[in-house]
Amino acid sequence: MRTVDALRALETATAAQRGLITSAQAARLDIDRTTLSRLTAAGDLTAVRRGVHALPSAATDPHLEARAAWLAGAPALFADELAGSADTPVLSHDSAARIHGIGDLIPHRHTLTTATRKQTRHADVRYVRRPLADDDVATVDGITVTGAARTVGDLAAARTDGGHLAGAVRDALARSLTNTDALAAALEPSARAYGQPDGARLLGECLRIAGPPASTAGIIERSRPTPSECSWNRPGAPQRPSSRSPLSRGPRGRPSRGPAAARFVQICCKGPHHAGAPRGNR
Length: 282
Hints:
By secondary structure, this protein is of the alpha+beta class. The chain is built from 12 helices and 8 strands.
């Protein structure tokens, strides 16, 4: 295929992929690897990652790296085919949070969830095996990701520190990506790991730390536990949370350097009127 014809075909095919093309997709367009190499050498294409190239138009994509990792998860399929398939990987956890624009986590690796076992040689990609229901998946900017509530639930299951989890909860509600019932249900399995009796209480504590959207402010007072309900006031429980608690540690088990995780624990029993609570809640 002539170079000019190959470029025209690529531009048409990548309109829904923000200018990205995989080698396997190009092969479906009858563009072989030799032609891709020639276009790359001429500066018409840029190698983004192994097997994924970008046209100049991809430079404006704020999710370029994440989109490339997502396409590489099923390289023979185009974006619209990926979005319509229940068996292909979707971006999840902190990668999905970044795409949704919730919280301020910066992913160190691209995390994708898939219903079947999948391995990769790429150090910057990890796969999590888990089946996802239809309502657990959303499409954002042409990329399939876990929905906002499922993303928050995954962050909690991964024991994300309290401050970052709270930020993701606040932003998901502020942007109307989900509702309090869905978030409480998603947080339910991890509530006790954060020292809360149920998902609704954990949701309330997240909102207390991060500062709730106006429409959900009432949930804080309704969900605040009494001192007797706090995990460390139950019979046989330690008097204070351990330093090994997920609330007092940062991502990947590192101690949290900020005050957010400590406030998460303190506010649980003390309420928002004590020192250290957000000013708007006093």
